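User: Show me a protein chain along with its predicted structure.
Assistant: Here is one chain, sequence first, then structure tokens.
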Amino acid sequence: MILARIARALKDQNWLAVGHSLVARALPGGAG
């Protein structure tokens, strides 16, 4: 179903954003 695919894409993007924020917070000076 298209809705399931969209929900999965949003969840993946959310995890990527969370991971990026964690990396940026962990690295000195931030990451980009």
